[in-house]
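pipeline/complex-builder :: batch 7 item 3
reading input block
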Amino acid sequence: MYTSLTEKLIDWSIALYLWGFRIIVVLIVVIGTVLTLIGGKYNSQQWIDFVVFGIAQGSIYALIALGYTMVYGILRMINFAHGEIFMSGAFSAYFVASALEQSGFLDQNPLVALVLIMLVAMAASTGIALLVERVAYRPLRQAPRLVPLISAIGASFFLQYTFRGLFGPGVYAYPVVELLQGEWTFFGINILKAQVVVTIAAVLMMLGLYTIVMRTKIGKAMRAVSEDKATAALMGINVDRVIVTTFALGAAMAGVAGVLYALVFRQVNFFMGFVPGIKAFTSAVLGGVGNIPGAMLGGLFLGIFESLGPALFLESLGIVAPYQLKDAIAFTMLVLVLIFRPSGILGEKLTAKKA
Amino acid sequence: MAILTAKKVTKRFGGLVAVNALDFTLEKQTIASIIGPNGAGKTTFFNCITGFNQADEGEIIFDGVPIHRLRPDKISHLGISRTYQNIRLFPNMTALENILVGLHAHLHATWIGAVVRTPATRAEEEHAHEEARRLLRFVGLQGKGDVLARNLPYGDQRRLEIARALANKPKLLLLDEPTAGMNPTESEAMVAFIRRLRDELGITILLIEHHMRVVMSISERITVLDYGEKIAEGTPREIQTNPRVIEAYLGRGSAADIPEQAVRPSVSTLPASSAAG
Amino acid sequence: MNELRRLPVWHSVRIGLIGGVIMLYICLVGMVEVFGRSDIIERVISLGQVLLLLTGLGAGYLAARRAGEPTNALTVLISGVVAGGLTGGLLTGLVVIGSVVNLRAVFINASPALYNALTLGAGPNGAWIPLVGGAALGLVAALFCLLPRRVRQSIVNGLVGVLLAGLFSGLLRVILAARPGWSAELGRFLFASEGLTLAGALLFFILAGGLALLWSQSQATVRERITRLPEAQRKTLRWAMLGLAVILILIFPQISGAFIAQVIVLVGIFALMGLGLNITLGMAGLFDLGFVAFFAISAYTVGLLTSTGEHGIAQWSWWAAAPVGVLLAMIAGAFFGLPVLGIRGDYLAIATLGFGEIVRLLVGSDFLRPWLGGSFGILAIPKPWIGNLELAGPQQIYYLAVFGAVLVAFVAVRLRDSRLGRAWMAIREDEDVAEALGINLVQTKLLAYMLGGAFAGLGGAIFAALVGSIFPHSMNLLVSVNVVALLIVGGMGSIPGVIVGAFALIGLPELFREFDEYRYLLYGIALIAMMLAKPEGLWPSAAIRRELHTDETDETETNPGSSSTVPAS
């Protein structure tokens, strides 16, 4: 054996540390949860609120995550600018929404108006995504992997500050849709209307996308290209068109997500895409990159977890202002999932080629 | 004396049993082959030996040490090297650097030693470069040390991969289809080269090969796998006449007419193999 | 449609439209106004106007060049005029529409001031001005196209010289004015209170154009003379150049003044972090997007250990605290790295990004506020002392940063050519094979990760000394992104590349603080343009250059060694 003693020692301490790490995290979660539940600071209605909010937020993450996951599945590239595609959808829709509000149309025909707003958001997001793909990604398809990533980071900055320059740095308040105000009561549980509508809309969009990918010809072509570009091309598939379609579909989802986000949080800003973008990518990774149901599951999981987490795990441990650590919980969970299941919840085993 | 013993090794991928309760023994300083149709589990068995895959059941003992639970790097330290079916060099490193990586386990410089460049580190580096250049010459790649591995011609890449494997000073060398994609002349050169490895360096060699001519001429023992199970074992002549082997290769019913064709070219080269052995 | 495309004028129309859209973008995004505030030549032309002129000229030039293949002066001129006219025509459209509809409800910059700027003060009545002006620019560009090559080159060089001098006029003026006498006089002659004086502009134009011409003629002979020198003399020449460079580096901050020194210190800090990441990412292929975590840990350690303010715990000297900070960053690297190093590729990137964010959120949280100061940060970090000399300002800390960068560069070079460097590269290329060759993956990767972390920690320690106070908001993802970007833009694996990259991505934006609003916009454009034009980086290492240019057709994404040449067996 060539293995030296020190090397063996290091190996052992590494193993020891890894187990300690897992045990400590599990302990924190368990102790925190038990203490919180014993303490009984929140009643069941509050817990339900946390979960419902988490689901609404999570389904928005999931919608954005679809764009990441589909593009990654086909090009093996992190589309860093996807969060900005989401932002541009929400922003363009804002102008339509406020115009509709001023003309009174929004209050008279709220449903038609909402559909109109979403269509505009989808169109804007798709247009911008295709422009970015054409200018910043397509010429780099043969380049080493880091090159398109840097270009994507550039595109992300460009879009953020273009919107800032064109529309100003302020925070704009989204018009109020009367229809979505107030609560509905299901089985004695009160739920905010906006959150119900957002969740339903997101789920419908995801089902639609899933049908497109699994049932249509272009969906089949997309799956083929994501398996093997060269072979797909030999089979007569127009790879360029498939990639463009993928970007367009992902962007349309992000556009809808932008509107839904604005309905829940009721404001838009040029910087709003950044954090949801990172969270959505986290969701995609959680579910297993390249896997569409995985992205949906990852988004929901992340949304619920970060909505519940601060109150459930941290508060009773005596941590001041645990809500500031909401994102820290999200990322910790990401790291944990990656440690225990390196390919995500639904991910296939990642081969060296795909990693 | 056996250098490698596998007892009841089983490896499953989901529902597929890639290697099924395989018993296998390899004598020191022999050249042996594993053959079998595509998907027979040959490469999986290699992967189990080198630790790429961990066997689900059974044990593998190398030189008296059980290795079926060890990591690939530890197994390599014990003296097993391999090459790959589809060449896996470090494409963006030079030929010389590829071999130097192979020497890794025999070097001991720490990062502090490398930064300060202690006399010991420097001496070790010089020695390593010398050794690497010697290996380059040994496989006939002299003067190509500074070429990026990716830019070498195909045959050179195969030989560089073997040189890299040899740098580890292995006792057992696993070659996964060393003559794949070679024309008959190149194959013959490769066969001669593999014999040299055993004769001059005393390395035990186990190879997977599809070219029957090569297999029959070089192997002292042949093991035939089909669907993860061993269906035959023996000398080349025994294998050539084994009805189960013929059936596995050509399918039931066709055994009557085609086997001659599959076997004929190798028969002519058999004397060469016995002369070398 | 297809027949339309065959007309020679089609290209001009296309280029003109693209140019027009770019012009509209420049106007609506607000660059005309903000850049209009800074004059290149005092009261003659502002940077905003230069941008518009360049777009018009560029459109005209490209169109004229394209038409100029069968050399026909008339086609060339017409193409230029069409493209330039269209480019300006879109602005005319903007002014016309803007005078009828209130575009300002959506585009905040579509103000009467903008329309006035575009029509040279004439307002809506002068809507024709951009159209005619654009056509005129196109004509000028087309005429320029017809000039002989050498003349064209000197004109371009001269204009670039004027533009650069105008851009940096503020800095240059301050430097010159710092010393009374002839230097201050020269400053007053060349530079006005804003931009160049007319005389200065003329001088710079002649100098830049003329010198470039001279150099282009004599460069070949100079090169030849150098190569013909005997080996010994060439060596002396090299050493002399090196010595000159060292002396320049040493006296530089004393000439440049505090502001530039501060910029250079930042460049140095990022360069040394880039060199650190070059080990982690460039050599070992571990994609770390959480570099800021180590930077933050070390900066906070140094802050806590040295601060004389309320959060200080030890009041150590910087020299004692910095190694502790670096060590802690390294240990944090081990603690962070171990759980995630088994993860491959982009998954690792996102996991490390998560670490960076976790650290930022923790240091900024109210939970740790009693110890780390929360969002108010840690104040009153004293400066390092050498003996009785306080490294009080950027002009002194500069030496610290330069020393740090040189140290890191030295370590990086030594490691690259060692057993470890080779093991890292092997892991980057194919980690399964590397492991089968006896490389302990976890330990080797961990070492790369920890060393990268240590270098980031050194950057953080120097940063704490430079600014004297640290806040959680300076520990954001942008730091990590900047480090990755400067590594790629400079050229991965190349030490001079990293330094060039740091100057380009950290130094330049700092120098143009006055255009802060557009800093990241231009940064984004620069990143994309850079990747499109020179993906191998500004100063690529020899190996990468070989890789990208020897065989362009080879697929890079799959394992090249195994591709294409292996026939199915």
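note: The interface with chain A takes residues 74, 77-78, 105-106 of chain B (CB under 8 Å).
queue -> next item
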